[in-house]
Amino acid sequence: MVALYAGTTAERAQETLDVCRAEIDRLSKDVTEEELNRSKTVIKGSLFTTGDLPEGRSAALVEDVFLQDQGRSLDDIALGINNVTLDQIPAYLEAFPPKPQTLVTLGPKPLD
After folding, report:
1. DSSP for 45-58, written as a single string
2. What is the pTM of this model?
């Protein structure tokens, strides 16, 4: 699964949506090491921030038990994130293609 969030203004909403779609399409073609490292940093930052809250940690443990039959520590999850390589991205996207897409937009007018 590929998830993406973008906040923007009403005037730039269509442009933002178009860029998001293009970036999802680009995932299997030319992700750089720098982009992968930035993504890892953001994901781990969110992981540890959410993991500090009882509700967030509980939700993560439930997800782990549901998907892997056991809970993992935050350090184990971070290690898994650190171990992701550029070579794994195309195989992941082949196994879990980001299409069909489910799209939700909120704003004053519909987007294309």
Report:
1. HHHHHHHTSHHHHH
2. 0.75
